[in-house]
Request: fold
Amino acid sequence: MKTNYHTHSTWCDGKDSPEDMVRAALEKGFSALGFTSHALLPLADPWTLQPHTAAPYADEIRALAEKYGDRIRILCGVEADFITGRVRSDRSVYAHLGLDYLIGSIHEVVAPDGVRVPVDHKPELLSEGIARAFGGDAQAFVRAYFAAEREMAATCDFDVIGHPDIIRKFNGVLRYFDESADWYNEELRRTADAFAASGKIVEVNTGGIARGWIDDAYPSPAFRDLLRERGVRFILSSDAHSAAALDCAFDRFAAAEDYVDSPRPSHRKS
Ligand SMILES: [Zn+2]
Ligand SMILES: [Zn+2]
Reply:
């Protein structure tokens, strides 16, 4: 069964309209497609749903679910940002939208002085952020990132943990930390423990491959081993920002894990 439950569109920073994404999914033989626009309610930011566009977005996805319902299962969710102390990826924040599910993701790490450092936007913004907000201490930045991942998993009510080690995205060009270092693997173990305790599904996200920054999915094979050992369930997702990328590298990762086929295997509605 071919499914993707992490899909962007022109409602946030995606290139194609929701209907174009549905048509591409049909052409590629998908049986289900879940939309997850970026959202950090109650804040407004240009790359995410705005407080006033969230309801129209959900309405449009539901209309598509109705229109194409005999050919493909369409779900409406959001990729709900967690920003430490400011924004929570929690079902209660989005309850008024009646979503089918939530992905919880981190794209910004809050430095000790309160500055928000973008993790995966541009390499130069990341290196500037580490230099200015973390005094050049990349290890402190990486530790703060994983501490936020653990806090999100432990304290927010959502379904799928999005791209849990996206801090690797620019490590190929910036080489700002050593993925084989003991301290890094200790962070992975602690985070795997927290994810397992949360009971949430973790996605295997191929989105970095489509963008050309990394030739691997998130989480890394080593991180996936730790998660699998702890009984964490996986879901395969492309994090597509265009119709062409809807099944990016799915052929490569389809057999990598024993995936669940729904972001809320035992539920229907939030
Ligand atoms: Zn994301
Ligand atoms: Zn995404």
Observations:
- The first strand starts at residue 3 and ends at 7.
- The chain has a mean pLDDT of 96.
- The beta strands are 3-7, 32-39, 73-81, 101-105, 108-110, 116-118, 160-161, 201-205, 234-237.
- The chain has one domain: 3-253.
